[in-house]
Amino acid sequence: MDITSKVVNDVMIIKLHGQLNIDTSPQFREILFAKIDADPSNNKILIDCDLLEYVSSAGIQVLYILLDKLEQKDGKLALCSVSPNVKKVFNIIDLMSDIQIYKDQAEALTKLNS
User: Fold this and answer.
1) Less Cβ around it within 10 Å: N or C end of the chain?
2) For the chain, which domains are there?
């Protein structure tokens, strides 16, 4: 899995490409937590799932751990550009009741900064 990041309007955008599963979730967690811990102002995270092909329970676990960490810092976590296949998985576990999912980056950035 490839992970890229950039900051736009005080929101860290993490773009995932590939699969978030048992093999890749430790790397994902390590990278995210390092970025959050390096700068206390990194408390708004948008995960762009446009190129995310698959997510397993291990990947979902990292999302919930990240959500908890951000909530402790009065932060926010959101997802955007989720494919229909990945969205099916999120629907099964009712992830949307805990993490906001937006159509695209533009919508998400507007909501995260309001």
Assistant:
1) C
2) 2-108 (3.30.750.24)
Residue ranges of E strands in the chain: 2-8, 11-20, 44-55, 76-80, 100-102
pTM listed for this prediction: 0.93
pLDDT tens, residue by residue, 21-70: 999 999 999 999 998 888 878 899 999 999 999 999 999 999 999 999 99
Place of tokens 């992830």: 95
Segment 86-94 long-range contacts (CB within 8 Å, at least 24 positions apart): 86/49, 86/52, 86/53, 86/54, 86/55, 89/55, 89/60, 90/55, 93/60
Phi, psi (degrees; rounded to nearest 5) at 33: -65, -35
Tokens describing residue 109? 């950035």
Query: Residue 91 carries which DSSP code?
Result: H
- The helix/strand/coil state of 104 is coil
